[in-house]
């Protein structure tokens, strides 16, 4: 059973998402919060697996709440197109994924399951904005982090593909290996680089210059 906490300052959003998720046999809504501070407090009390986190909330916004929950539950950021500017900052804060508020109901349910399973969830529009963020930055020479030296050539290749938004299935097809082999590589990459999930791996790959925007 996947335990979910919903944080949004709009009552209708909390109730609507709550009813939708509660109707799923494998999901349990353990609580909700109307601001970031309450979300942090309730997450620590209720120990959810996933927090659905709005960005703009009173008292404490979703980004700060996400930072304070680092190392705890997975955070799925609820965003609208005009909030995509927050994508990079939210990933740095520790978010595991993003979901557009106008996404179909089935997408919300699937998003919670994907994030709970430890996968990153980046909607195509969000991924494009993230890449644009890096493309707009001055191309300064970035030193190659020593941590990258710990990766094998194949692991480095897998990391590049993760950064380009490829799923495990797509990476397996590209490299002509079993999907389980890819999962093993991904696990080793995250462990060696001290990263929590694929979302952090994407940021790491771009920040270190392993992958350049537009490649």
UniProtKB/TrEMBL annotation:
Which Pfam families would you find in this protein's record? Answer: GerE, Response_reg
Q: Name the SUPFAM superfamilies for this protein.
A: C-terminal effector domain of the bipartite response regulators, CheY-like
Q: Gene3D superfamilies, alphabetically?
A: 3.40.50.2300
Q: Which GO terms describe its molecular function?
A: DNA binding
Instruction: Give the record's keywords alphabetically.
Output: DNA-binding, Phosphoprotein, Transcription, Transcription regulation
Report the domain of life of the source organism. Bacteria
Matching PROSITE patterns = HTH_LUXR_1 (PS00622), HTH_LUXR_2 (PS50043), RESPONSE_REGULATORY (PS50110)
For the keyword Transcription, the answer is: yes
InterPro entries named in the record: CheY-like_superfamily, NreC/VraR/RcsB-like_REC, Sig_transdc_resp-reg_C-effctor, Sig_transdc_resp-reg_receiver, Tscrpt_reg_LuxR_C, WalR-like
Question: What residues does the Response regulatory domain cover?
Answer: 3-116
HTH luxR-type domain span: 144-209
Keyword Glycoprotein appears in the UniProt entry: no
UniProt modified residues of type 4-aspartylphosphate = 54
Q: Which PANTHER family does this chain map to?
A: TRANSCRIPTIONAL REGULATORY PROTEIN NARL-RELATED, TWO-COMPONENT RESPONSE REGULATOR
Protein name per UniProt: DNA-binding response regulator
* Species of origin: Actinoplanes palleronii
């Amino acid at each position: 059973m996947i335990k979910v906490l919903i944080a949004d300052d709009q009552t209708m959003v909390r109730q609507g998402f709550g009813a939708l998720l509660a109707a799923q046999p494998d999901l349990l809504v353990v609580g909700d919060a109307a601001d970031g501070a309450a979300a942090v407090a309730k997450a620590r009390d209720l120990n959810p697996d996933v927090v659905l986190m709005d960005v703009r909330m009173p008292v404490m916004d979703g980004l700060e709440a996400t930072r304070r929950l680092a190392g705890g539950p997975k955070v799925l950021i609820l965003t609208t197109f005009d909030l995509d500017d927050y994508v990079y900052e939210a990933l740095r804060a520790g978010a595991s994924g993003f979901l557009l508020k106008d996404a179909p109901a089935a997408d919300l349910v699937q998003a919670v399951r994907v994030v709970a399973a430890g996968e990153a969830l980046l909607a195509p529009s969000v991924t494009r904005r993230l890449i644009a963020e890096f493309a707009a930055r001055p191309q300064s020479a970035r030193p190659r982090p020593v941590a990258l030296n710990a990766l094998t050539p194949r692991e480095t290749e897998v990391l590049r593909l993760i950064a380009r938004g490829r799923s495990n299935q797509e990476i397996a097809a590209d490299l002509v290996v079993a999907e389980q082999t890819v999962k093993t590589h991904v696990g080793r990459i995250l462990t060696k680089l001290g990263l929590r999930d694929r979302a952090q791996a994407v940021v790491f790959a771009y920040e270190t210059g392993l992958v350049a925007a537009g490649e």
